[in-house]
Amino acid sequence: MPTIAGYLQIAEETGKTLSQVVLEAQAEELGKTPEELKEKMRRNFQVMLESAQEGENPELRSASGLTGGAAARVMERTRQGESLCGEYFGKAVARALAVSECNACMGRIVAAPTAGSCGILPAALITVMEEKNLPEESAVMALFTAAGIGMVIASNATVSGAQGGCQAEVGSASAMAAAAVTEMAGGTAGMCANACAMALKNVLGLVCDPVAGLVEVPCVKRNVMGVVNALAAAEMALSGVESVIPADEVILAMKRVGNTLPATLRETAEGGLADTPSGRQIAIRLFGKTK
Fold first, then answer.
1. Would you list the DSSP string of 241-274?
2. What is the band of 15 on the pLDDT scale with cuts at 50, 70, 90?
């Protein structure tokens, strides 16, 4: 099974970036040329851009009525110069909401690595690309870094909320985004690994408790937490801050934590926020009974 340590060893021996290591490994495994895989990843990034734009529609609403319009409100406040933490922060938050709301409203998204966590990676990549005036190529290559991290997590632990809780979905997406933007900002492969580890550590134990069984509450807003966490972890890694626990060990710890979570906190809508009075009332309103 792939490991982050294995990727790092190759990167250090060859002087290549993490994205280059992952791209070449995937090209060999799939029998494709690097150019073919880059073109496919470029199309994925275009879908991310489109979903972020579509999600900003102030009229967007999900069938349940629980989701829609939040991204537009945050982006409008940001563009008016009123964001509490500045334009960079405001746009990242708005885009995480936008892609997640696009998903909840049956739009076209890229599962990254899941639909429930789809807003984190696009929001991070698009915002860093724009803020740092980077070419699209940097975001496309960073997606390979994210993909490599995602493959390691999926192979050695899980990215499924039903199996590991929301730490496996939002946590994994946040770790993938942290590593990706660290590389975009010029970080080394080792810095990418540290960013991944710190982002995932920050959300260990996060439960999956979708209200009424829908991927809307609290999922959409947790994507915001995920992108903020990713950017914070990348900032630390780029400053030379290292994770005391290596990334591969953090991933295995996440798996063990997920295995100990009760079934009520793993996407069954039987615990956590889903089991609050308001959560139960929403389920009754939408489905005539609690789920």
1. ---SS-HHHHHHHHHHHHHHS-GGGBTSSSSGGG
2. very high
